[in-house]
Every structure is written in structure tokens, then in C-alpha cells.
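Hi again,

Forgot to attach this to my earlier email, sorry! This is the prediction with calcium ion bound. I've pasted everything inline since the attachment limit keeps bouncing my files.
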Amino acid sequence: MLLFIFVIAFLLGEGCTSALGTDLGPKMPLIVNGSRTYYYGLTHQGTAVQAESFCRKHNMDLLSIETQEEHLFLQQSLLSYLDLNTAQQTFIWTSGKRVDGDRWIWEATGRPVHYKNWWAEQPDNDGGIENCLELWYKPEFPGQIKWNDIYCNNTSRYFICEYNNKDANIDNVY
Ligand SMILES: [Ca+2]
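C-alpha cells for the complex follow:
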């Protein structure tokens, strides 16, 4: 009986261990766009805090989207990495946080969210608990990735880290 309990506890423990908590990141390419470099965390999922911790561990920040140009670049670039044939919805953490009501900031930079690209009827703050900003790919709208507000402790989200090229110090990503 004790052994049985131990095995169950071990399995549960394994299930709760996010890959984002491991030291080595998934081997994804670094994507350069102008002064910014992005790391697409598209092989492991976790909460917003886990994603942020992963980025910080590697001297990067969780993604902030400052301009339409930046959003469109990421949209086009990301679409080439998603497996569009599986028709799966895809969700990706950014550093966007609701600070109160409909006021949003990019937490990584502390700047207000000026440029916006929400899906229709978003942000809806469903259940009154959606205080994080995610990118949302919907297969029924091919070619588009827009924004949604979502519960920050949701565990089934990918993430993007970024850094300014002049601050590069990310020798341990791989
Ligand atoms: Ca929402």
C-alpha cells in the first residue's frame, strides 16, 4: 500500500513539474528583428509566472509588443513555426498585465500598452480573473494572431522571451 501511495505521489509530482522549471531551455532558434531578438518557447507550456521566470533565468524578458510593426513581424514569423495543419488553437504568454479596469501595461518594461490588437469582444475579463495578456491563434482565422486577456495561472500556454540586442547576455539559452 505504501509503495502504491509513493508511486502515485511520484506520478503526481512529475505531472506538476513544468518543463519551464528546468535549467535547459528547449532548442528553438533565436529570431532577430531590428534591435530585438526573440526566443520562441513553443515546445513547453506553463503559467505566466513560470514563463517569466524562464525568460529571466536566461537574461531575457517576457515579450512586450510596442508597435504594430512588431506585432505584424511576430505574427508572420510565428505562423511559420506553428503546425497549422493540426488546426490547434495556440496560446502564447506576453508580459502584458491588467493594472486596473481596462488599463494594461507591459510588465517587463513598465510601459502602458499603447498599440493594441485584441480579438473581437476581447478583453472580456471572463469571470473577473483575466489579468494577463496572451497571443491567441485561432485556426478558423488563418493568418491572424491577435490578443486575449486570460487567467494568469493557466498552465497551457507557450511563451516568447525577448531582449534588446545591445543588452545581449544569453549564453546559456541552449
Ligand atoms: Ca478573455
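The domain at 26-167 is CATH 3.10.100.10 (Mannose-Binding Protein A; Chain A). The pocket of calcium ion is lined by residues 122-124, 126, 130, 148-150 (CB under 6 Å).

That should be everything now.

G.
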